Model the fold of this input.
Amino acid sequence: MNELPQWAEWLISFFIILGACFAFIGSLGLLRLPDFMTRLHAPTKNTTLGVGGVILGSILFFSVTDALSLHELLIAIFLFLTAPISAHLLAKAGLHLELKRIESTRDLRKKPEQYSDRDD
Amino acid sequence: MSRFLPAPWWSLFLLTFWLLLQNSVSFGAVLMGSILAVLIPLYTHRARDYPIKVHKPLVALQYGGILLVDIILSNFNIAAIILRPRKQIQPALIEYPLDISGAVPVTILASTISLTPGTITAELGKDGRSLLIHALNVADPEAAIQEIKQRYERRLQEIFQC
Amino acid sequence: MLVFALQFAFALFGLSLLMNMVRLIRGPSLADRILTLDTIYINSLALLILLGIWHSTAFYFEAALLIAMLGFIGTVAAAKFLLRGDIIE
Done:
Protein backbone atom coordinates (compact mmCIF):
# COMPACT_ATOMS: atom_id res chain seq x y z
CA MET A 1 0.00 0.00 0.00
CA ASN A 2 3.00 2.32 -0.10
CA GLU A 3 2.84 3.23 -3.80
CA LEU A 4 -0.14 5.54 -3.19
CA PRO A 5 0.48 9.26 -3.70
CA GLN A 6 -0.03 11.41 -0.63
CA TRP A 7 -3.15 13.26 -1.85
CA ALA A 8 -4.90 10.03 -2.82
CA GLU A 9 -4.21 8.49 0.55
CA TRP A 10 -5.72 11.47 2.39
CA LEU A 11 -8.72 11.65 0.09
CA ILE A 12 -9.47 7.92 0.35
CA SER A 13 -9.09 8.05 4.12
CA PHE A 14 -11.43 11.03 4.28
CA PHE A 15 -14.18 9.27 2.31
CA ILE A 16 -13.83 6.02 4.24
CA ILE A 17 -13.98 7.72 7.64
CA LEU A 18 -16.91 9.92 6.55
CA GLY A 19 -18.81 6.87 5.34
CA ALA A 20 -18.05 4.90 8.48
CA CYS A 21 -19.20 7.80 10.70
CA PHE A 22 -22.51 8.09 8.84
CA ALA A 23 -23.14 4.35 9.00
CA PHE A 24 -22.33 4.42 12.72
CA ILE A 25 -24.73 7.32 13.36
CA GLY A 26 -27.41 5.51 11.36
CA SER A 27 -27.06 2.41 13.51
CA LEU A 28 -27.00 4.56 16.64
CA GLY A 29 -30.27 6.12 15.51
CA LEU A 30 -31.74 2.69 15.00
CA LEU A 31 -30.88 1.94 18.60
CA ARG A 32 -31.85 5.27 20.18
CA LEU A 33 -34.95 6.64 18.46
CA PRO A 34 -38.18 6.03 20.35
CA ASP A 35 -40.62 4.34 17.97
CA PHE A 36 -40.69 2.35 14.74
CA MET A 37 -41.65 5.15 12.38
CA THR A 38 -38.85 7.41 13.62
CA ARG A 39 -36.36 4.54 13.64
CA LEU A 40 -37.15 4.02 9.97
CA HIS A 41 -35.55 7.38 9.13
CA ALA A 42 -32.09 6.64 10.50
CA PRO A 43 -30.87 3.56 8.60
CA THR A 44 -32.54 4.26 5.27
CA LYS A 45 -30.82 7.61 4.90
CA ASN A 46 -27.59 7.36 6.82
CA THR A 47 -26.40 3.89 5.95
CA THR A 48 -26.99 4.64 2.26
CA LEU A 49 -24.62 7.60 2.36
CA GLY A 50 -22.30 5.59 4.60
CA VAL A 51 -21.94 2.92 1.95
CA GLY A 52 -21.71 5.69 -0.65
CA GLY A 53 -18.65 7.14 1.11
CA VAL A 54 -16.96 3.75 1.40
CA ILE A 55 -17.67 3.05 -2.27
CA LEU A 56 -16.18 6.41 -3.33
CA GLY A 57 -13.07 5.51 -1.35
CA SER A 58 -12.92 2.11 -3.02
CA ILE A 59 -13.32 3.57 -6.52
CA LEU A 60 -10.50 6.05 -5.84
CA PHE A 61 -8.24 3.37 -4.35
CA PHE A 62 -8.57 0.91 -7.23
CA SER A 63 -8.43 3.66 -9.86
CA VAL A 64 -5.19 5.02 -8.45
CA THR A 65 -3.41 1.73 -7.72
CA ASP A 66 -4.73 -0.17 -10.75
CA ALA A 67 -6.67 0.71 -13.90
CA LEU A 68 -9.83 2.84 -13.78
CA SER A 69 -12.42 0.87 -11.86
CA LEU A 70 -16.02 2.03 -11.71
CA HIS A 71 -17.94 -1.16 -11.05
CA GLU A 72 -18.45 -0.28 -7.38
CA LEU A 73 -20.78 2.43 -8.66
CA LEU A 74 -23.29 -0.34 -9.44
CA ILE A 75 -23.70 -1.05 -5.73
CA ALA A 76 -24.17 2.65 -4.96
CA ILE A 77 -26.76 3.13 -7.73
CA PHE A 78 -28.56 -0.02 -6.68
CA LEU A 79 -28.71 1.07 -3.04
CA PHE A 80 -29.93 4.56 -3.94
CA LEU A 81 -32.69 3.05 -6.08
CA THR A 82 -33.80 0.47 -3.53
CA ALA A 83 -33.54 2.40 -0.24
CA PRO A 84 -36.76 4.42 -0.78
CA ILE A 85 -38.65 1.31 -1.89
CA SER A 86 -37.79 -0.78 1.15
CA ALA A 87 -38.43 2.24 3.40
CA HIS A 88 -41.84 2.73 1.80
CA LEU A 89 -42.79 -0.94 2.19
CA LEU A 90 -41.68 -1.02 5.81
CA ALA A 91 -43.57 2.22 6.55
CA LYS A 92 -46.66 0.67 4.95
CA ALA A 93 -46.23 -2.40 7.13
CA GLY A 94 -45.76 -0.22 10.22
CA LEU A 95 -48.95 1.71 9.51
CA HIS A 96 -50.87 -1.44 8.72
CA LEU A 97 -49.86 -3.13 11.97
CA GLU A 98 -50.70 0.10 13.85
CA LEU A 99 -47.48 0.01 15.83
CA LYS A 100 -47.29 2.28 18.86
CA ARG A 101 -46.09 5.82 18.11
CA ILE A 102 -44.63 8.17 20.70
CA GLU A 103 -47.06 10.69 22.17
CA SER A 104 -45.55 13.73 20.51
CA THR A 105 -46.50 12.40 17.05
CA ARG A 106 -49.18 14.58 15.51
CA ASP A 107 -51.58 12.66 13.32
CA LEU A 108 -52.79 15.10 10.67
CA ARG A 109 -54.79 12.62 8.60
CA LYS A 110 -58.18 14.05 7.76
CA LYS A 111 -59.55 10.75 6.48
CA PRO A 112 -57.47 7.89 7.91
CA GLU A 113 -59.46 5.27 5.98
CA GLN A 114 -57.97 6.79 2.78
CA TYR A 115 -54.64 5.29 3.72
CA SER A 116 -55.63 1.94 5.17
CA ASP A 117 -54.64 -1.12 3.24
CA ARG A 118 -57.76 -3.13 4.06
CA ASP A 119 -60.01 -4.17 1.22
CA ASP A 120 -63.42 -2.90 2.26
CA MET B 1 -38.68 3.80 -32.18
CA SER B 2 -37.45 1.25 -34.71
CA ARG B 3 -38.29 -2.44 -34.69
CA PHE B 4 -35.01 -3.65 -33.25
CA LEU B 5 -34.53 -0.85 -30.74
CA PRO B 6 -37.90 -0.24 -29.10
CA ALA B 7 -36.28 1.79 -26.31
CA PRO B 8 -32.88 3.21 -27.31
CA TRP B 9 -32.14 4.91 -23.98
CA TRP B 10 -32.89 1.74 -22.12
CA SER B 11 -30.58 -0.22 -24.45
CA LEU B 12 -27.83 2.31 -23.79
CA PHE B 13 -28.40 1.92 -20.07
CA LEU B 14 -28.18 -1.88 -20.33
CA LEU B 15 -24.95 -1.66 -22.33
CA THR B 16 -23.42 0.70 -19.75
CA PHE B 17 -24.57 -1.58 -16.96
CA TRP B 18 -22.95 -4.60 -18.63
CA LEU B 19 -19.66 -2.75 -19.19
CA LEU B 20 -19.65 -1.60 -15.54
CA LEU B 21 -20.27 -5.16 -14.41
CA GLN B 22 -17.40 -6.44 -16.57
CA ASN B 23 -15.27 -3.48 -15.47
CA SER B 24 -13.49 -3.40 -18.85
CA VAL B 25 -14.13 -2.08 -22.36
CA SER B 26 -12.78 -4.95 -24.47
CA PHE B 27 -14.22 -6.00 -27.83
CA GLY B 28 -15.85 -9.10 -26.35
CA ALA B 29 -17.53 -7.17 -23.54
CA VAL B 30 -18.94 -4.56 -25.95
CA LEU B 31 -20.19 -7.28 -28.34
CA MET B 32 -21.92 -9.29 -25.61
CA GLY B 33 -23.31 -6.09 -24.07
CA SER B 34 -24.71 -4.95 -27.41
CA ILE B 35 -26.39 -8.33 -28.01
CA LEU B 36 -27.98 -8.18 -24.55
CA ALA B 37 -28.95 -4.52 -25.01
CA VAL B 38 -30.90 -5.46 -28.15
CA LEU B 39 -32.41 -8.75 -26.95
CA ILE B 40 -33.59 -7.78 -23.47
CA PRO B 41 -35.74 -4.78 -24.58
CA LEU B 42 -37.15 -6.84 -27.48
CA TYR B 43 -38.19 -9.55 -25.06
CA THR B 44 -39.59 -7.35 -22.28
CA HIS B 45 -40.86 -4.14 -23.86
CA ARG B 46 -44.44 -5.43 -24.01
CA ALA B 47 -44.45 -5.44 -20.20
CA ARG B 48 -43.73 -1.71 -20.06
CA ASP B 49 -47.15 -0.09 -20.13
CA TYR B 50 -46.14 3.25 -18.66
CA PRO B 51 -45.12 5.47 -21.55
CA ILE B 52 -43.24 8.53 -20.33
CA LYS B 53 -41.71 11.41 -22.16
CA VAL B 54 -39.08 13.69 -20.72
CA HIS B 55 -39.95 17.14 -22.05
CA LYS B 56 -37.16 19.11 -20.39
CA PRO B 57 -33.93 17.07 -20.14
CA LEU B 58 -32.02 20.06 -18.72
CA VAL B 59 -34.47 20.47 -15.85
CA ALA B 60 -34.17 16.72 -15.24
CA LEU B 61 -30.39 17.08 -14.92
CA GLN B 62 -30.84 20.02 -12.55
CA TYR B 63 -33.32 17.94 -10.55
CA GLY B 64 -30.73 15.17 -10.21
CA GLY B 65 -28.15 17.65 -8.95
CA ILE B 66 -30.53 19.17 -6.40
CA LEU B 67 -31.48 15.67 -5.24
CA LEU B 68 -27.85 14.67 -4.72
CA VAL B 69 -27.09 17.78 -2.66
CA ASP B 70 -30.29 17.32 -0.65
CA ILE B 71 -29.44 13.68 0.12
CA ILE B 72 -26.11 14.76 1.61
CA LEU B 73 -27.74 17.63 3.56
CA SER B 74 -30.44 15.26 4.75
CA ASN B 75 -27.80 12.97 6.19
CA PHE B 76 -26.28 15.76 8.28
CA ASN B 77 -29.77 16.78 9.32
CA ILE B 78 -30.72 13.28 10.53
CA ALA B 79 -27.34 12.85 12.20
CA ALA B 80 -27.95 16.04 14.20
CA ILE B 81 -31.39 14.82 15.25
CA ILE B 82 -30.08 11.41 16.31
CA LEU B 83 -27.31 12.91 18.45
CA ARG B 84 -29.81 15.20 20.21
CA PRO B 85 -31.72 14.14 23.36
CA ARG B 86 -34.60 11.91 22.30
CA LYS B 87 -37.47 13.75 23.96
CA GLN B 88 -37.17 16.84 21.79
CA ILE B 89 -38.27 15.50 18.43
CA GLN B 90 -41.69 16.34 16.99
CA PRO B 91 -42.77 13.68 14.49
CA ALA B 92 -45.93 14.08 12.43
CA LEU B 93 -48.03 12.21 9.92
CA ILE B 94 -48.81 14.65 7.13
CA GLU B 95 -51.26 14.41 4.26
CA TYR B 96 -49.67 15.72 1.10
CA PRO B 97 -52.04 16.73 -1.74
CA LEU B 98 -50.63 15.76 -5.14
CA ASP B 99 -50.76 18.11 -8.11
CA ILE B 100 -49.07 15.75 -10.53
CA SER B 101 -50.48 12.53 -11.91
CA GLY B 102 -49.17 9.43 -13.65
CA ALA B 103 -47.39 6.42 -12.20
CA VAL B 104 -43.79 7.38 -12.99
CA PRO B 105 -43.83 11.03 -11.81
CA VAL B 106 -45.60 10.10 -8.57
CA THR B 107 -43.12 7.27 -7.96
CA ILE B 108 -40.20 9.64 -8.51
CA LEU B 109 -41.74 12.22 -6.16
CA ALA B 110 -42.38 9.58 -3.48
CA SER B 111 -38.81 8.28 -3.71
CA THR B 112 -37.48 11.84 -3.59
CA ILE B 113 -39.47 12.54 -0.44
CA SER B 114 -38.08 9.37 1.14
CA LEU B 115 -34.49 10.30 0.31
CA THR B 116 -34.60 13.94 1.43
CA PRO B 117 -34.49 15.59 4.85
CA GLY B 118 -36.54 13.98 7.56
CA THR B 119 -39.50 12.68 5.56
CA ILE B 120 -40.61 9.24 4.42
CA THR B 121 -43.50 8.41 2.13
CA ALA B 122 -45.65 5.89 3.93
CA GLU B 123 -48.70 5.43 1.74
CA LEU B 124 -50.45 6.55 -1.41
CA GLY B 125 -54.08 7.55 -0.86
CA LYS B 126 -56.73 5.23 -2.29
CA ASP B 127 -57.84 7.83 -4.82
CA GLY B 128 -54.24 8.42 -5.90
CA ARG B 129 -54.47 12.15 -5.22
CA SER B 130 -52.48 12.38 -1.99
CA LEU B 131 -49.46 10.93 -0.21
CA LEU B 132 -49.12 10.14 3.47
CA ILE B 133 -45.77 11.39 4.74
CA HIS B 134 -44.11 10.65 8.05
CA ALA B 135 -41.86 13.51 9.09
CA LEU B 136 -39.22 12.99 11.77
CA ASN B 137 -39.01 16.51 13.11
CA VAL B 138 -41.23 19.31 11.82
CA ALA B 139 -42.42 22.39 13.67
CA ASP B 140 -44.80 23.58 10.93
CA PRO B 141 -46.30 20.85 8.70
CA GLU B 142 -47.83 23.35 6.27
CA ALA B 143 -44.43 24.91 5.58
CA ALA B 144 -42.94 21.44 4.96
CA ILE B 145 -45.65 20.70 2.37
CA GLN B 146 -45.03 24.02 0.64
CA GLU B 147 -41.28 23.38 0.52
CA ILE B 148 -41.73 19.98 -1.15
CA LYS B 149 -44.16 21.54 -3.62
CA GLN B 150 -41.83 24.38 -4.53
CA ARG B 151 -38.62 22.40 -4.59
CA TYR B 152 -39.53 19.11 -6.22
CA GLU B 153 -43.10 18.85 -7.47
CA ARG B 154 -42.96 22.04 -9.55
CA ARG B 155 -39.84 20.77 -11.32
CA LEU B 156 -41.32 17.31 -11.93
CA GLN B 157 -44.38 18.97 -13.40
CA GLU B 158 -42.12 20.89 -15.72
CA ILE B 159 -40.12 17.80 -16.72
CA PHE B 160 -43.02 15.47 -17.49
CA GLN B 161 -45.69 18.08 -18.37
CA CYS B 162 -48.41 16.29 -16.44
CA MET C 1 -2.82 7.12 7.19
CA LEU C 2 -4.85 4.74 5.04
CA VAL C 3 -4.12 1.85 7.40
CA PHE C 4 -5.35 3.92 10.34
CA ALA C 5 -8.46 5.02 8.44
CA LEU C 6 -9.28 1.44 7.51
CA GLN C 7 -8.83 0.21 11.07
CA PHE C 8 -10.97 3.08 12.38
CA ALA C 9 -13.70 2.26 9.84
CA PHE C 10 -13.55 -1.46 10.71
CA ALA C 11 -14.05 -0.56 14.36
CA LEU C 12 -16.99 1.75 13.63
CA PHE C 13 -18.72 -0.79 11.40
CA GLY C 14 -18.13 -3.50 13.99
CA LEU C 15 -19.73 -1.30 16.66
CA SER C 16 -22.63 -0.57 14.29
CA LEU C 17 -23.22 -4.29 13.79
CA LEU C 18 -23.15 -4.80 17.56
CA MET C 19 -25.76 -2.07 18.08
CA ASN C 20 -27.87 -3.62 15.32
CA MET C 21 -27.62 -6.92 17.20
CA VAL C 22 -29.02 -5.25 20.33
CA ARG C 23 -31.95 -3.85 18.36
CA LEU C 24 -32.50 -7.22 16.67
CA ILE C 25 -32.82 -8.92 20.05
CA ARG C 26 -34.89 -6.17 21.73
CA GLY C 27 -37.38 -5.86 18.92
CA PRO C 28 -40.05 -5.00 20.00
CA SER C 29 -42.03 -5.70 16.82
CA LEU C 30 -41.36 -7.86 13.78
CA ALA C 31 -41.15 -4.74 11.59
CA ASP C 32 -38.28 -3.45 13.76
CA ARG C 33 -36.41 -6.71 13.27
CA ILE C 34 -36.85 -6.60 9.50
CA LEU C 35 -35.60 -3.01 9.45
CA THR C 36 -32.60 -4.08 11.51
CA LEU C 37 -31.80 -6.95 9.16
CA ASP C 38 -31.92 -4.44 6.30
CA THR C 39 -29.38 -2.28 8.15
CA ILE C 40 -27.20 -5.29 8.96
CA TYR C 41 -26.83 -6.33 5.35
CA ILE C 42 -25.96 -2.79 4.26
CA ASN C 43 -23.35 -2.54 7.02
CA SER C 44 -21.85 -5.90 6.17
CA LEU C 45 -21.57 -5.13 2.47
CA ALA C 46 -19.69 -1.94 3.40
CA LEU C 47 -17.40 -4.11 5.55
CA LEU C 48 -16.79 -6.40 2.56
CA ILE C 49 -15.82 -3.45 0.38
CA LEU C 50 -13.45 -2.22 3.09
CA LEU C 51 -11.94 -5.70 3.28
CA GLY C 52 -11.41 -5.52 -0.48
CA ILE C 53 -9.42 -2.27 -0.02
CA TRP C 54 -7.48 -3.80 2.89
CA HIS C 55 -6.32 -6.79 0.82
CA SER C 56 -6.27 -4.63 -2.36
CA THR C 57 -8.24 -7.18 -4.32
CA ALA C 58 -11.46 -6.80 -6.29
CA PHE C 59 -12.71 -10.31 -5.47
CA TYR C 60 -15.05 -9.12 -2.73
CA PHE C 61 -16.97 -6.88 -5.10
CA GLU C 62 -19.22 -9.61 -6.49
CA ALA C 63 -20.08 -10.78 -2.99
CA ALA C 64 -21.03 -7.23 -1.98
CA LEU C 65 -23.21 -6.80 -5.08
CA LEU C 66 -24.97 -10.10 -4.39
CA ILE C 67 -25.62 -9.14 -0.76
CA ALA C 68 -27.08 -5.81 -1.93
CA MET C 69 -29.47 -7.51 -4.37
CA LEU C 70 -30.55 -10.48 -2.25
CA GLY C 71 -30.87 -8.30 0.85
CA PHE C 72 -33.24 -5.96 -0.95
CA ILE C 73 -35.35 -8.83 -2.23
CA GLY C 74 -35.43 -10.34 1.26
CA THR C 75 -36.55 -7.06 2.85
CA VAL C 76 -39.30 -6.59 0.28
CA ALA C 77 -40.52 -10.16 0.70
CA ALA C 78 -40.59 -9.89 4.49
CA ALA C 79 -42.39 -6.51 4.39
CA LYS C 80 -44.93 -7.97 1.97
CA PHE C 81 -45.47 -10.84 4.40
CA LEU C 82 -46.14 -8.33 7.19
CA LEU C 83 -48.65 -6.53 4.98
CA ARG C 84 -50.50 -9.60 3.73
CA GLY C 85 -49.64 -12.45 6.04
CA ASP C 86 -51.52 -11.53 9.19
CA ILE C 87 -54.82 -9.96 8.30
CA ILE C 88 -56.66 -8.77 11.40
CA GLU C 89 -60.27 -8.73 10.32
